[in-house]
Amino acid sequence: MPSPFIIDRSSVTQVMAWVLAALLPGIAVYVWVFGPGILVTLSLATVTALAAEAAMLKARSYPAQPFLTDLSAVVTAWLLALSLPALAPWWLIVTGTLFAIVVAKHLYGGLGQNIFNPAMVGYAVLIVSFPVQMTQWAGPLELTAAPLTLAQSASVIFGGDVSKATLDAVTMATPLDSLRTGLLQQHTVDEIMTQPVFGHYGGIGFEWLATAFLLGGLVLWALRIISWQVPLAFLAGIWLTAGFLHFFDAGRFGAPWFHLFAPSVMLGAFFIATDPVSGATTPRGKLIFGLGAGFLTIVIRTWGGYPDGVAFAILLMNLCVPLIDQYTQPRIYGGAKKAKAPPA
Amino acid sequence: MLAAILVMAGIAVAIGLALGWSAIRFKVEGNPLAEKIDAILPQTQCGQCGFLGCRPYAEAIAKGEADINLCPPGGEEGVKKLADLLGVEPKPLDESHGAPKPKSVAFIDEQTCIGCTLCIQACPVDAISGAAKQMHTIIAAECTGCELCLPPCPVDCITMVPIAEDLPHWKWKHPVVMLKQVSGDSSA
Amino acid sequence: MSRELFKFKGGVHPPEHKTESNARPIHAAPLPRKLVIPLRQHIGNPAKPLVNVGDRVLKGQMIGEADGTISAAVHASSSGIVTAIDLQPVPHISGLPDLCISIETDGRDEWIEHGPLDYRTLAPADLRIRLRDLGLAGLGGAVFPSAVKLDPGATQHCPTLIINGGECEPWITCDDVLMRTRADEILQGVAIMRHLLGSTEILVGIEDNKPEAVAAMHAAAARMDFAVEIVVVPARYPGGGAKQMIQVLTGREVPSGKLSTDIGIQVFNVGTAYALARAVHHGEPLISRLVTVTGHVLRPQNFEVLIGTPMHTLITLAGDRDGTTGVLMGGPMMGMPMPNLDVPVVKATNCILVQSAELFPPLPKALPCIRCTRCADACPAELQPQELFRFAKAADFGRAQEYHLFDCIECGCCSYVCPSHIPLVDFYRYAKGEIWTREKDKRAADLARERHAFRQFRQEREKKEKAEKLAAKAQAKRAELAAAPDAAAPSEADAKKALIAAALARAQAKKAGTVPKNTDHLSPGTQQEIEEIEARRAKIRELAHQPLESEEKP
Q: pTM value?
């Protein structure tokens, strides 16, 4: 075994563990805003992901150690779970997680080989296949009459005996969905924004969630686990695109701040777009990747068929990664532009 | 109507002229495919493929008259490169034309050599120097290891010496990174 | 001190482990009974042996002469008898042997006649030849022949001379200790370099983790009659790399694929400067050097070691311990594992690092690359190691070259930071080796193709010449026959027949004369082989008689 003979203490497991830790503030806020149902969703997704990972590793004759314990499957499971509606039925969670791990991760070659972000593939499959279930969110506790307990949430998720009336009382459309519906009904943005669900700037509850994810993301950046380019460029892409549209027709296009703090943007900016495997690797490439994803998010939110565009935007930019990387190769020490013949 | 016909005809003529011009301007001399195949062949000129040398074999492959797996010195890697170039499935080496051997150079035992010049005539790359009734010697740097000098030698004084790995020729091996428990099919 | 410093991109800061070995004074390693001196100790052509087995050699006697410009001589490190000139194990990771001169020492350590050189009066070219013959090579690790580097080239002027006291690799302290104890001689060597290169600016870069060395060099610099600037640079691996040192001290980059002299900068290691001073002021060839012996030994320290001393004697001197798992030549970042401990200390041996499971735990298993680009952040050459790895692994060497594989300095920073613990540098070394081999094979194939084509052309030409000659001869004969009126007027056809018959008789006679004599007693194997080959030749001959269509219709 040749040099070097010493290594830094970092490991893939450590990187993944930090990502999970940085998600905890967001999860805490989630519980506070939407009730404890998310804990059931997270657990179910985690168990499904680990089981699928173990089965796939066995099928592909890879050792469980270190692949199962590297926590990458758990990260995928948590990101997907946090993107799903609160109180999504169990089969939705299991289907999405299975698709993410089995198809998006392992059929592409496993850890490090997937060209698409597995969690976003899982999400995209679900929203295309089950649009109704995917847009019915448990409303923020402030707006619901009778908040569900952990046991009740579990019961809802596993399709237990919960009366439809109870369910209707706790679920409602997301702010983005409300905006879309409102616009389709020829209301102006200002009129729509007076609905209670919109809160201060990003949707009631969702804005706190976004802030918590932002904090977790800043921690990851401080630890140099993620680079600053992707989140900044992603947020800038959203802010600039939304701001441009809002500037021209404030009546038809939401304010940039609303778009930044609406569901999934902060999670996407700091935890999903920064996925190294499916993202761009060069510094300039990361900026382009983030800007592109931000731009596409607003385009899809505004003109697309689905209320939110983060998942599709990131998947579309994943497709462009090889091209982006190839054309943004940085200058090297000594500034060689072209490859040379090898020294004799 | 007439204008449309004229425009379309004009475009057709213009494109035709451009095509014709580029056919003359960018005309490729010789047989480019055979050149490319020849560049892959190892140039031992040994004739084990049944052709008179690497170039005739390359031309035969280019015309589809010969298979790509007839060259033992090129080995499996050579077959694979040819398959890549021609866009066909690689196939195992045809053992009837000989098996790949470690790279060797011919060596003349100078005590036994009678100076008959037969090997000089047989060498496809003129890598043997000597004259009638004078001792011959191999120019090792130019010897391709084709073995064509072995049969004509009346006193059997030529042997093939495999090229041993020494320090200046040593190279790093592919690092062994074992990810799988058992050696499977897909790479990790 | 007021000098503005620059930063190089990337780099890492592994634990330094310098204090283990830099506190003890330098010990002279005792004279071993047998010295093994490799002829290839420097970059370039190996030295050519000058002595024969059985010769008595004196300490400092040249036993191998430089072969060509980029080469250096080797010398007997002590007096004794040459016992062998053969392949011996050398300190190389492959474990392959190389040509060495073995000397049985006689214990008298008798010097050959030697004396100082007056470098100021000697012509620079002559001085460089003397230095080459004194075996000087860079002691920082690359062992490039110093005489070549001391040639300023056509401009006769290399404005900036940098003396590298970086020593950024963990564990190694030989340069540190050398600067602490022999600062004056180092600067005397620098004076000679300055003379040869015509440098006006002289900078000595020392990492800030060596305050004693900095102080000693400052004091020595004050005693010099020319300006030397001692610059303290932040300790960060690989800050002791020549390119990185240049960047930190001057803010300039050596253009890719060029030499530092192209931008008017030359860099020498402090050890080289010291060896140069010994060579010029005392006439001593490079027969010893400082070697750090550290790691898993009882008394880690620096030794003054004769070139050719077996490594195991040094480990014994430093106190070997149980639980040794391996021995490296060099530091933990770029060092090479030694195949066995009988290998000699050579000019490149700056450190012998003894490993144990506690100091160097086995590296964890490699995981797949997750493209986290930490390697790119750490790469001092500012490459994209994750892409190079991808191409090297896929044997896509062309792409690897496009992504500047050959600008990689193999410092190991990428492997050090990789969270997947991939031996990245290994892949780059492998890819470089493959590219070099393929280039060589391609050159050989091109040569063979060219020679084959020429042979065919020659045969064609000879055939034509022969035919012309024959035609001329026949013409002459016919003319002769026609001119003889008395013969019974043989028809022209008869004349032709006679000619053919004569030729046939000649050919038969010739054929009978050259029957091979070695076909009488053959083993069945040989017989079979000959038959196979005969069959192949027959086929070739047959094919030769039916020209390929391609030849008829080009």
A: 0.83
